[in-house]
């Protein structure tokens, strides 16, 4: 049986199963497996329609895995002999989308089976079963790429800019930076190699990858997106779960898809277009669970933004098919388009793609990444019972995003998209993936390329965040050496290099060396910018102020920190991450001086700023929360600490899983505060 287990993925423990890069997992639960050759042929056929196929004969292992799934939908295949063993446990589980009964004879459903809305049908041969699963998979993938309201899993396929503005902003910055990356033949090859890795033992998919490698052209991007192949499956899962590394590997294709959607959008909006979508109502059918429906009703009047491409149809009839026909869980989105985004210069891209789609009868209209919708109403249809959700696609909230994108563009002009994209890994706490990313970029840079020291800086920053300070210094000095020997004597990046090295030395408690490096950086930047306000001058001032705090030079620390903050306030009318950090550093200074009231004021200001621009899943966010709780404890105000803890916990639990590190950490911080009483 061990031999069969390895070849057919039989009875695997949930911790032994490889990460599924698709949105669906197919589970086949049978009473026994006596004919290995038959099951091998059958699973090979099933993997033609879905790559992830798991077989179980042990009930407890099967149920344990099913309950552990949080980011995929499950299609379950049951034989007639085991169905009543498992059906009552399966019916309430939202991640189980559908059940297919596979038996050699048609069976008669008893009353309990007739009441199971998840059962699709009874099949007696593997080919008819596989065909039915292919049809169901297409429907699931359409539903999964749409709006899914947060249910405290590890995914948030839709962002609410009001509840978690930092996460919402980060996704838009990610998309913007992604589109700026170079589109090279190496980029295409990296995407292909990753796809081959994901489908290493799937001959059918490998043939599709071969086809893509040989025949793909930029003008084929939309067509490939609508095909039920590895491109659609891997990209949508990566977008929905914000798998930054996977998105980087798909950058070649994402850029093509964005450009083609922009082209088609402009064509649709031109007076001569035969596909008029301006003023036309669009529809999308899907299935939501009870908690997701509650979230819809609670969000009327709010804004939402899907992580992925948002697929709709001009046909209400088509959308109703995808809604599944369940009077309790079926949902029909009715989408209007704001007049403000019906011009060819609109920042929101949407296009009718009938003529390019593999499913032209679906009359599909796709909204590109980052589209914002406002929920205006929700009501149940009296006849069908289906929940109708009315939304409008709008450019509201984009002014806030555009302000930060403009700031990011300024950084792009001063550095390289390759570096900034690596920083986005760090911004979401994915340090190991950031390390892989930078090392991958280094391997593809020639010796003479001028970007190399910037990538060294990026890699050093990863090691700094991981508290691997010796390695951070190694790469920091490598970068500094190259910059000093380059013909241009790049004053800007040399100064940036000095700041980075200063923080690496600070990590090793070498504060005097850090202070020296910060002051050298400030001198260089002032030679570039004179007395005018500049972000880099402000960063140097704040860095000197913070290190002066560590050296006990409080008067100088306050002077530099306040001077840096005032400059940041003049530079940025809105919240900015450097302003947030400056506020927290001033709070730290006042706390060390036992000026607790002043410290609390600045900590609170920093925390309120962080809520607007930083994802609440970021490790630094919970550090800021911890600063405030610990300060309340120092002030002997345990009630204040408890109240703020409740505020933070409520904010975190709206978006994160109960075992997310930030939720665990906030509990530990509060527990420590109580135990110190």
From TrEMBL:
Give the coiled coil ranges.
none
Q: What is the lineage of its organism?
A: Eukaryota, Metazoa, Spiralia, Gnathifera, Rotifera
Q: Which UniProt keywords apply?
A: Repeat, TPR repeat
Q: Can you say where the TPR repeats lie in this chain? A: 453-486
Tell me which domain of life the UniProt entry assigns to the organism this sequence originates from. Answer: Eukaryota
Know the name of this protein? Uncharacterized protein
Q: Which InterPro entries match?
A: TPR-like_helical_dom_sf (IPR011990), TPR_rpt (IPR019734)
Pfam families per record: TPR_12 (PF13424)
